[in-house]
């Protein structure tokens, strides 16, 4: 896509959550900045927008308040609910947390184990158990996608303690024409790969700057949110992040009718044929 083919200069917006005018619900992952100077191009111009860099601390947890509940139905007792303390875990510390003697699973006679050969977790008791797939928010990380009933229940899938693979930087108040895996228009400006370990910095530098067309005719404020693929806001645990938005302008040309396009192609071919004939002579 050609861009900046006008006399209007480009703009860089250097945004930092630390200096946001508003943090939605007090969270640094959803920030609003109000612009002193409105971005409003001249008539017959459109706005193009791209995230050209971003810096994020890996300050979020693998297990948070949205994916740390385990509910197991124990025959003759009913549902046993266990809440995993929020944080990062490896397989050893995770199994230790499930088997903690002061918590609900141990008190109910349920023990957890891990098979390193299959990378699967099991829960065992002296009577039948059934993992509640509706109430358990931790089921995907533990590898349970189907409900079975037995005195030993094992996840049908592998355990996944890798955490978030990507962070989606989304514009909440600006219309852009990008698409997601469902072929639906999305307000995602950047998909940021989480390619570092916890407590390190994620530096996003796109290999190619692709500018999305903005449907808004003017921009008075910018509301950006850090979300996962399901649209859930990421808990940055109070840590700040920053990004650069680069804005170009593009002149809006009228689309040519198909006949005119064909005429141009035919005309070019005629000129090309004449040149080839002259070269042969």
Draw up the topology in text.
Blueprint: E1 11-16, E2 22-23, E3 30-39, E4 45-57, E5 69-74, E6 78-83, H1 91-98, H2 104-107, E7 111-115, E8 120-131, H3 139-142, E9 149-154, E10 166-171, E11 178-179, E12 185-186, E13 188-193, E14 201-204, E15 212-214, E16 219-227, E17 242-251, H4 258-280
Antiparallel strand pairs: 1-17, 2-3, 3-16, 4-14, 4-15, 4-17, 5-6, 5-8, 7-8, 8-9, 10-13, 10-16, 11-12
Helical content (DSSP H or I, runs of 4+): 10-25%
Q: How would you classify the helix and strand content by structural class?
A: mainly beta
Dominant shape = elongated
Low-confidence stretches: none
Helix and strand pattern: EEEEEEHHEEHEEEEEEEEEH
User: What's the pLDDT, averaged over the residues?
Assistant: 88
Strand content: 35-45%
Distance between the termini: 39 Å
Characterize the structure shown.
Strands 1, 4, 14, 15 and 17 form a five-stranded antiparallel sheet that branches. The protein has a five-stranded antiparallel sheet with strand order 2-3-16-10-13, with no helix packed on it. The chain is 14% helix and 38% strand. The radius of gyration is 27 Å and the shape is elongated. The mean pLDDT is 88. It has helices at 91-98, 104-107, 139-142, 258-280; strands spanning 11-16, 22-23, 30-39, 45-57, 69-74, 78-83, 111-115, 120-131, 149-154, 166-171, 178-179, 185-186, 188-193, 201-204, 212-214, 219-227, 242-251. It has four helices and 17 strands. With 281 residues, it is mainly beta.
């Amino acid at each position: 896509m050609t861009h900046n083919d006008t006399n209007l200069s480009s703009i860089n917006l250097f945004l930092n959550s630390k200096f946001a005018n508003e943090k939605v619900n007090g969270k640094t992952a959803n920030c609003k900045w109000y612009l002193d100077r409105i971005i409003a191009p001249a008539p017959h111009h459109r706005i193009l927008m791209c995230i050209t860099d971003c810096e994020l601390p890996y300050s979020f947890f693998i297990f948070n308040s949205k994916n740390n509940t385990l509910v197991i139905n124990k025959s003759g007792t009913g549902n046993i609910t266990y809440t995993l303390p929020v944080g990062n875990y490896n397989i050893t510390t995770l199994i230790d947390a499930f088997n903690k003697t002061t918590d609900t699973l141990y008190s109910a006679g349920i023990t957890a184990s891990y098979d390193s050969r299959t990378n699967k977790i099991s829960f065992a008791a002296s009577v039948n158990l059934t993992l509640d797939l509706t109430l358990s928010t931790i089921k995907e990380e533990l590898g349970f996608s189907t409900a079975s009933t037995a005195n030993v229940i094992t996840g049908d899938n592998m355990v996944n303690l890798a955490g978030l693979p990507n962070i989606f930087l989304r514009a909440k108040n600006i219309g852009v024409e990008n698409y997601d895996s469902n072929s639906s228009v999305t307000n995602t400006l950047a998909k940021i790969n989480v390619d570092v370990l916890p407590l390190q910095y994620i530096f996003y530098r796109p290999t190619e700057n692709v500018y999305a067309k903005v449907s808004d005719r003017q921009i008075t404020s910018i509301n950006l949110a850090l979300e996962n693929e399901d649209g859930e806001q990421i808990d940055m645990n109070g840590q700040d992040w920053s990004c650069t938005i680069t804005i170009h302008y593009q002149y809006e040309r009228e689309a040519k009718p198909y006949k005119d396009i064909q005429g141009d192609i035919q005309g070019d071919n005629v000129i090309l044929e004449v040149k080839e004939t002259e070269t042969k002579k």
